Amino acid sequence: MGKTQKFHGYNTDIERLATRIETYLTENGFEVAFSKDQTRPVSWCFIQARKLGALRTAAGARRSTDISIRGSPDNFEVSIGTGEWGKNLIMSAPLFVVPVIGIAATLTKIYTAKRFEDNLWKYIKEQANFLRDSGQSGKKETSKASDQREFDCDYVEGYPGWSSQVLGGKLILERQKKGTDQLIFEAPDGKKIQIPAANIEKATIISRKKGLAEHDLMIELTCKDKNKTIHPVINLADDIIAGVLAGINEIVAEDKYLRDMYKN
After folding, report:
1. Burial (CB count <10 Å: 0-12, 13-18, 19+), residue 124
2. How many CB atoms are located within 10 Å of the residue 136 CB?
3. N or C end of the chain, less CB within 10 A?
4. Domains along the chain?
């Protein structure tokens, strides 16, 4: 390991990119710790990961994969290397262990060093591109109360009260500065589904087994609705589905982290 890549002109929110990397690592069986710039806009994030449980040898207990992101939304660099667990190589700021969020993605669990690094780089590049224009290029942040990302849907099904498949519509991932992050589906006729991030237990990519859309990739949610567990299914274009899944994971992880932080 030991590689750096520069990203120019993306206008990517590097804090959100770091959150998605943290989620990817926890889903793939790693213990994760992080530290970040406390000023705004964030100019650096540092992430450490080490293998969990039986995958961690005695000799490798202190060995970590270190990922650093430095720069501005329009001009930043990502570095991946190895280090010692618990040591922040960028700043003297403390490292915080990321809580396990309990959601899953259909990502292959790969633990060989070369394949792991290749897959991690591929994921980082995809997410940096997916988060284009999510950053604040200037020195001051805007005062927008929420950030919404919209995606066209082919259809949605499996939601209580909707007896048939709803064709078309938009999926909206909403991050709120003050309030509750949520997932919104807006049908062509104006009807809406609003699912708070706190109610989402799991999000996975599945493939339809039969019917006209056989082998179509879809996102299946497992979430709470009025004391019941429901499993709505959202179909999106294959070229964006992994990025949308990462976005759902992001708002769920962020919401859980904030709720845990403000517990008694």
Report:
1. buried
2. 17
3. C
4. 3-130 (no CATH), 146-261 (2.30.29.30)
